Every structure is written in C-alpha cells, then in structure tokens.
Amino acid sequence: MPTSNVAAFRPAATNNLDAFWMPFTANRQFKDAPRMLVSARDMHYVAADGRKILDGTAGLWCVNAGHGRPKIVEAVQRQVAELDYAPAFQMGHPKAFEFASRLAALAPAGLDHVFFANSGSEAVDTALKIALAYHRARGEGQRVRLIGRERGYHGVGFGGISVGGMVANRRTFGLGLPGVDHLRHTHDPARNAFTRGLPEHGAELADDLERLVALHGAETIAAVIVEPLAGSTGVLLPPQGYLERLRAICDRHGILLIFDEVITGFGRLGAPFASDRFGVTPDIMTTAKGVTNGVVPMGAVLASEAIYKAFMSGPEHMIELFHGYTYSGHPLACAAGLATLDTYQEEGLLTRAARMEKQLEDAAFALQDLPHVIDIRAIGLVAAIELEPIEGEPSRRAFSAFLKAFEKGLMIRTTGDIIALSPPLIVSEAQIDEMFGTLADVLREIG
C-alpha cells in the first residue's frame, strides 16, 4: 500500500459521535447528552449506564412481540448459516414463497398477492407505482393523480413525502411528485376532544374526496392513500363511518384505495390489521415494522387478485412489473417474518390488544386533569396525550417530557406536542400502570 494512502485507512476513534448523522434526531442535543441503548429483552431496553428502560413505544412501533424473542433469534441464526442471500430477480428461495403465502392467508380476504420491499417507505412507493401501473395496464393511463391526506405519514421516499401531509417532512425537499393532492385531515379537537373510542364527528370529511373528484376529474385519479389510524402524526383515530364512506366513494369513481398499515398491522389495534378492526378492506395495503418484529428490515405490499391479474398478460418471458429491490424477500427477513408470525399465533398476540384496550384507555384518561393536557386518544394498545404548546416554542413541552421520561426509565415517543405510547403487545397490566404512573409524574414536573 502506498505510504500516502495509509492515513485514509486509519480507523476513526470508536467513541466519536460525529460520523453518524442520525435520522429524525436533534443531532446537536443528542451528541451533547447521548441516550445510548446497549441491549434489550422482552419489555425493556438497557441503557449504557445499566438502567432498565421500559419500552413504551415497541421500539419505533415495530417490536410488537417484545425484544429478544428466542424463536425469532434462532430462526435468523439458522438462516444466515444456511442461505445468507439469494437474488429475487428471475430467481427465488423457498422461504420467500412460504412467507408470502402466510401473509396472504392472514390478510383481509381478497388481498392475495405480496410484493416484498425493505421498509415502510419502500412499501408505500411500491404501492403507488403498482396503482399507477395497474391503471395503465387496463388502458386508463390517464389516471396519474395520487391523493393523500393532510397530517398523513407515509415514509420518507419521494412518493411517500409527496402523498404525506406532515409539513416538516415536506418543506425542505421541493415540490415532490407532480399531480398530488390531499384530503383534509380528520383531527377535530373542538368537537372530539377526550372522546373514548372512535370520534363521533367527522365522517363527512371523507366527502372531501368528492370535491377533489369534481376539481380534477375522476378519470385522472389513480389512488387514494390513508392510514386507517394516523400514527406518526399523533394517533388520530378515524371518525365513525369515515373509512366506510371513503371506500364507497373510491368504488363509485374507480379509484384504488390504499391503506398504509405499517403501524397498525400485526395486532396493534386488537386485530391482525386495522382493516379487520374497522371492517373496511382496501385494494392495496402496505405493511412493515411488525412484519418481522423489527428484527430484520422488511416491508410488504399486499394487492388484490384483480390488480395482480391485470399485469399477467403479454409474452410469458417478459417482466410484468419493472420494479423491485436487491433485498426484496431477503432470506433473513423471511426467516424472521415466519418466526414472528409463529410467535404471534402461539401467544395470541394479534388479538391481545383487544383484551388490554380498556385498561390502557382508563390509564390514559386518568391523565386528563394534569397540567397542559388538552386531549387524549386511545384504541387497542396505542394512546396519545396531546399537550398545550408553549407559546412560540412548538414541540418543546413534549420533548421535555420525552427527556424526563427517559431519566425515569420510560421510553415514550413524541410528535410535535403529542406524546404517543404503543408498547409491545406482551405488556402486562402492571407495566401499563407503571408507564402511565411514570408519565403522570413527568407531566406534573415539566413546565
């Protein structure tokens, strides 16, 4: 090696925090006072200082079965020794087909075909591309418009941020995809604050799609994408009848309905999917996070038989959909996913949230009279406590709560001035009481 190049290969100091540009993080604040997690088991992380941290957020909404589950760990260990990687382009491996079949069997009836991605963001962009290509395959290539919703979150790909409606995620990156419009959001604290269960008011907001149809023409609209329950924007529950109304309008105008179930999939709301909980089936559904319990990155798009068959024409040797990823259906992800489904089934985790829902709701609403609390929302094993913002300093109050909770051994999630809790589905009654008891202390202490 030439002497002049030796310095380029010299490793950096291992305790240097500068190299890692952290995602969705106040980097300067973190690196001034790091919060390091070094191990995890079941319901707890362990911090670098040895403290146990109760996981109130299932990692990032993904560790639904809890941490370090033996069946999943062992499946990944076996798989990496047997088949570490296999290409998915013109080739296959058995576990990809087995896992796709298991997912299709678990999904709402009619969603029979699975396209693998590597994250929720990739799953969303895949779903949008499938919707556009589907209409073109049917001879309606003029359907190029995509409709999202204000305050929606659909990942961080250009497709996802374009149909998404979280302003901070969009403003830095220019115009995004052309031909995108947005429904109004459903958050209506003036009428629905402190409602237990689904909000009574707001089903009529689905009619906003009719306004967009009148503006753009139904013949130009390919798909509408919404989260059945908007998670990252603050746990916004759908008003009673809203999703049914949206489904009916899409049917009336030949528009595909896409549900983003990256957060709500795999038991979060007390059923395998939010589609099951609310009784509304989309044409396309995106999943990720809980699909492998967060152990190996993976996303999946489930599509109807009609959509799949629309592509299956032309010469048999030709590729039907010019789309895919190097790691689509990765062997380790499929092994983790199969073991995750086994764990969910053996422990009844896909419906456990329905049994725990009342306790979590009661614990959340017990915070109603604490300082600065302006709304509470809860369903399944997910809850939100919305705080009054500090004037001129949005998000500061909730971020202070996040820091104080970590000091007290509890991990929470914040978005703006909303605190979100979404513990692993294995959470015990005592741990629910501990989470909300700690949070109550936090809310009393912050300004």
Automatic annotation (TrEMBL):
InterPro entries: Aminotrans_3, Aminotrans_3_PPA_site, PyrdxlP-dep_Trfase, PyrdxlP-dep_Trfase_major, PyrdxlP-dep_Trfase_small. It comes from Hansschlegelia beijingensis. The lineage of its organism: Bacteria, Pseudomonadati, Pseudomonadota, Alphaproteobacteria, Hyphomicrobiales. Signal peptide: none annotated. Belongs to the class-III pyridoxal-phosphate-dependent aminotransferase family. SUPFAM superfamilies: PLP-dependent transferases. This is Beta-alanine--pyruvate transaminase. Gene3D superfamilies: Aspartate Aminotransferase, domain 1, Type I PLP-dependent aspartate aminotransferase-like (Major domain). GO terms for molecular function: adenosylmethionine-8-amino-7-oxononanoate transaminase activity; beta-alanine:pyruvate transaminase activity; pyridoxal phosphate binding. PANTHER family: ADENOSYLMETHIONINE-8-AMINO-7-OXONONANOATE AMINOTRANSFERASE (PTHR42684), BETA-ALANINE--PYRUVATE AMINOTRANSFERASE (PTHR42684:SF1).
